[in-house]
Amino acid sequence: MSDFETLSLEHDNGISTVTFRRPDKLNAINGQVLTELHEAAEQLAERDGLQTVLLEGQGRAFIAGADIGAMAEMSPEEGEALCKKGHETMDAIEAIPAPVIAAVDGFALGGGLEVAVACDLIYASGRASFGVPEVTLGIIPGFGGTQRLARVVGWQRARELVLTGDNIDAEQADAIGLTCDVFEVDVFEKRVRDVADTIASRAPLAIRAAKRVMRDGRDLPLDEGLEREREAFGDLFDTEDRVEGMEAFEARRDPDFEGR
Ligand code: COA
């Protein structure tokens, strides 16, 4: 366990779990949550042997957005500062070298959806719902939602969500490609854990390279993205795991990867 107050950070071999723990406020994000989430992301980025990260919320929400009570009295300068702090925190999640999975078993609204789209993969339970309701409050998404959401679901769907402020259920989210899959509530935890275990069983350096190249390539012209791919592809030929993976294939046995 950790010394954080609004979330917990737990480690189980190569899989770390961040759990948002303000269930009475549906895990709404105030300044302290942002500070602690940023700190947790930085700790994870430095963690040796990290293979996968799970983000989840305690209770009936993943995160129901930025804390509206805390925003109610803010000046424009304070609003902009909150936005900047949100951007830096979402950037810190993206910068974690291992894949990060958002396990959404409840509300992922506003800042909650923005945290989810800063992750590499999103899985939903049947009771999940998603939305960016900021325009119902007289503001716009401010933790990257006007930018990252479109990079996941395309501009048309992102505009529809942002401009209507309407929520969608898990099935609708899956239909627009926001989520990788929807699992029944009673098996949700296990099914998401299975995905984390699968990723953790693959060659760690290859997983990190794949995450990095795809994350960087998202915002690059194709030729520059392909250059990143070439470099990473070549570098992996220099790893023991590449030798092990190919030898294991030839010998028809499971590979034993060391992350070297
Ligand atoms: N900020 C601050 N507090 C929030 C919150 C948020 N974004 N979302 C929920 N809460 C709090 C509620 O104020 C309530 O606190 P209280 O018991 O002290 O009054 C508690 O969490 C439970 O929420 P409640 O609204 O009673 O639950 P519900 O099941 O009736 O509704 C939602 C759930 C998610 C539909 C509703 O809480 C909601 O619309 N939240 C705001 C979503 C939003 O606009 N997010 C974007 C913010 S930028």
Tally of separate domains: 2
Per CATH, which architecture of the largest domain?
Alpha-Beta Complex
**Average pLDDT reading:** 97
Helix- and strand-based class? alpha/beta
Classify the helix fraction into a percent range: 40-55%
- DSSP E strands, number: 10
The major sheet is characterized as:
6 strands, mixed
Q: Bound small molecules, which ones?
A: coenzyme A
CATH class of the largest domain: Alpha Beta
Q: How many distinct helices? A: 11
Q: Spans with pLDDT under 50 lasting ≥5 residues?
A: none
The CATH homologous superfamily of the largest domain is termed: 2-enoyl-CoA Hydratase, Chain A, domain 1
Rg: 19 Å
CATH topology of the largest domain: 2-enoyl-CoA Hydratase, Chain A, domain 1
Q: Which sequence of SSEs, written as H and E, runs from N to C?
A: EEHEEHHEEHEEHHEHEHHHH
The geometry reads as globular
What is the first-to-last residue Cα distance?
28 Å
**Largest sheet, order of strands side by side?**
1-2-3-5-7-10
Proportion of strand residues: 15-25%
Architecture overview:
β2, α1 and β3 form a beta-alpha-beta unit. The longest helix has 19 residues, at 76-94. The protein has helices spanning 31-46, 68-71, 76-94, 111-118, 148-153, 155-164, 170-175, 185-201, 204-217, 222-236, 240-251; strands at residues 7-12, 15-20, 52-57, 61-63, 100-104, 107-109, 121-125, 129-131, 168-169, 181-183. With 260 residues, the chain is α/β, with parallel strands linked by helices. It folds into 2 domains: 7-200, 2-enoyl-CoA Hydratase, Chain A, domain 1 (Alpha-Beta Complex); 204-251, Orthogonal Bundle (Lyase 2-enoyl-coa Hydratase, Chain  A, domain 2). It is built from 11 helices and 10 strands. The protein binds coenzyme A (COA).
